Amino acid sequence: MDDSDEDQRLPHHREPKEYVSLDKLAELGVLSWRLDADNYENDEELKKIREERGYSYMDFCEVCPEKLPNYEEKIKNFFEEHLHTDEEIRYCVAGSGYFDVRDHNDKWIRVWVKKGGMIVLPAGIYHRFTLDTDNYIKAMRLFVGDPIWTPYNRPHDHLPARKEYIENFLQEEGGGQAVDAAA
Ligand SMILES: CSCCC(=O)/C(O)=C/O
Ligand SMILES: [Fe+2]
């Protein structure tokens, strides 16, 4: 993403544009699938993901003024940088939106999730969400067991989920420490 403070709903590409591969996202623990959103009720691929990853809970969240209670406040809160103590799993069945995640250098990567896109943000990753200029998303929310939606706004580095995230995804091999060889 660029560093501009312009409308959060704009794409915010860098100039020239830079793209991040799905492999790079996976290195940050961010997983994604492309699914058939017109068939989510009978989709065997979705069923398999849910079974393998234990996503027993499911509901829908529609983000638009007519459907989301306290819309303005929620939009503001979604865009505050935060983490969760569990995975955030969203499957876009209609509309679109941006999930921004921090990379290894603490820079934002903007992930545009459109109809059919499913994304998993790992526990402990700093992130935020905004609608794009189409102003609408309908997302399936999945969870392992009873859902906990609590956002912990940055900084919450002392939480075990954050420490585990750093250990699993941000630390280089060998703890990232330089080794001085002495003769
Ligand atoms: C598209 S679902 C709304 C965003 C959300 O639930 C969340 O937790 C963002 O971080
Ligand atoms: Fe979140």
Automatic annotation (TrEMBL):
UniProt GO BP: L-methionine salvage from methylthioadenosine
Broadest EC class assigned to this enzyme: oxidoreductase
Listed cofactors: Fe(2+); Ni(2+)
Location of the protein in the cell: Cell membrane; Cytoplasm; Nucleus
Lineage: superkingdom: Eukaryota
Reactions catalysed, as given in the entry: 1,2-dihydroxy-5-(methylsulfanyl)pent-1-en-3-one + O2 = 3-(methylsulfanyl)propanoate + CO + formate + 2 H(+); 1,2-dihydroxy-5-(methylsulfanyl)pent-1-en-3-one + O2 = 4-methylsulfanyl-2-oxobutanoate + formate + 2 H(+)
Residues binding Fe(2+): H82, H84, E88, H127
Gene3D superfamilies assigned: Jelly Rolls
Listed EC numbers: 1.13.11.54, 1.13.11.53
Keyword Cytoplasm: yes
A Gene Ontology molecular function term of the record: acireductone dioxygenase [iron(II)-requiring] activity
Positions annotated to bind Ni(2+): H82, H84, E88, H127
GO CC terms, sorted: cytoplasm; nucleus; plasma membrane
InterPro entries: ARD, ARD_euk, RmlC-like_jellyroll, RmlC_Cupin_sf
Pathway: Amino-acid biosynthesis; L-methionine biosynthesis via salvage pathway; L-methionine from S-methyl-5-thio-alpha-D-ribose 1-phosphate: step 5/6
Membrane topology reported for the UniProt record: Peripheral membrane protein
Pfam families listed in its UniProt record: ARD (PF03079)
Keywords noted in UniProt: Amino-acid biosynthesis, Cytoplasm, Dioxygenase, Iron, Metal-binding, Methionine biosynthesis, Nickel, Nucleus, Oxidoreductase
Major subcellular location class: membrane
Cofactor note: Binds either 1 Fe or Ni cation per monomer. Iron-binding promotes an acireductone dioxygenase reaction producing 2-keto-4-methylthiobutyrate, while nickel-binding promotes an acireductone dioxygenase reaction producing 3-(methylsulfanyl)propanoate.
Main function: Catalyzes 2 different reactions between oxygen and the acireductone 1,2-dihydroxy-3-keto-5-methylthiopentene (DHK-MTPene) depending upon the metal bound in the active site. Fe-containing acireductone dioxygenase (Fe-ARD) produces formate and 2-keto-4-methylthiobutyrate (KMTB), the alpha-ketoacid precursor of methionine in the methionine recycle pathway. Ni-containing acireductone dioxygenase (Ni-ARD) produces methylthiopropionate, carbon monoxide and formate, and does not lie on the methionine recycle pathway.
Entry's family note: Belongs to the acireductone dioxygenase (ARD) family.
The protein, known as: Acireductone dioxygenase
Protein species of origin: Gossypium trilobum
